[in-house]
Description:
Layout: E1 4-9, H1 23-42, H2 46-51, E2 55-56, E3 59-66, E4 75-85, E5 89-98, E6 106-113, E7 115-116, E8 121-122, H3 127-137
Amino acid sequence: MASFETVIPVRFGDVDYAGIMYYPRFFQNFHAVFEDMFGNRLGVPYMSILKDRRIGFPMVKIETSFHQPFRFGDPMRLRIECTRVGRSSIDFHYRGYNDQQLLPSVEARATVVTVNLDSMKPIAIPLDVLAVLRELHD
């Protein structure tokens, strides 16, 4: 299965009083790798998909497992893979690795739905987006 990977540093504002990454920040980073993947693989900024094409990808489900903490200064290697493509819905598998570790420190499985941003109604996944998703699935 192909994947897309980016590195996001754990910043001071990402950690809680215990000195570990505060769990809502993981969800921000999952979306960051999603945005980076589209920009890299589709060749246009994610914002243009939203603004110019009026296509959105709201998350409708996410399940997350935390295995090891991330601390301030740690580089988080985040990987995204597509595990299922439907007519309008897409399942992703996110994995976050602490620096060069082989096993993920955090994993999430998420479902998004492709929608028209004006009506917020599901739409078929556009062909160019579908091609990107298939690359992440093979």
